[in-house]
Amino acid sequence: MKRRILHVVSNVAHYEDPSQPTGLWLSELTHAWDVFAAKGHEQRIVSPQGGASPLEPRALKWPLADASARDWLADPARMALLSATARPSDIDPADFNAIYFTGGHAVMWDFPGSQGLQHLTRAIHERGGVVSSVCHGYCGLLNTRLSDGTLLVAGRRVTGFSWREEVLAGVAAKMPYNAEEEMKRRGARYEKAWLPFVSNVVVDGRLVTGQNPMSAKATAQQVAALL
After folding, report:
1. Considering the entire predicted model, what is its pTM?
2. I want to staple 187 with a disulfide (CB 3.0 to 4.6 A). Which of 108, 123, 154, 170 is the partner?
3. How many domains does the chain have?
């Protein structure tokens, strides 16, 4: 049966220092997109402000830019999707069966405070849909509250890019906050793989989270299984 998935991407193009670019980690979108497309599901892309979603330069270089990402980069129609993303106000959450938050460090700045994204997430979840994220995408779940006022992640098993991975990636000093600790502060039961930079997915009911870029395909496969 055909389902509809809403992908969430960032509008942020740089770290606090404007000379240091960041953006969407492209493969975290493309790997999931490929999984859902293979099943015939419909997909759309939204961002906090709508419009263009910049790309993380590091994710466009070998070996991180794999065949899935290269195919997207070479397809003008797909690249156009990232230059004209929808605004949250353009989206009717009743039209979607799942929401999938992509990552890249950019999302740490514009995902957590977006009330539009929070509204979409809450509505999809409370209609019985799947809420999912990969890597830094879990920053989009930090402040989402359900209709009863409780945090969506409180008491739930989740994963996302760990602080150890930030340190090993050499970017910890650039971070506006420690996402792992912020998730724990909200009562989430944060988990991570024993080894960094390996695929790791945590499923807690209709909440599916992947730890890092290597987890995108497996995260999407879990979402697809729930759908």
Report:
1. 0.97
2. 154
3. 1
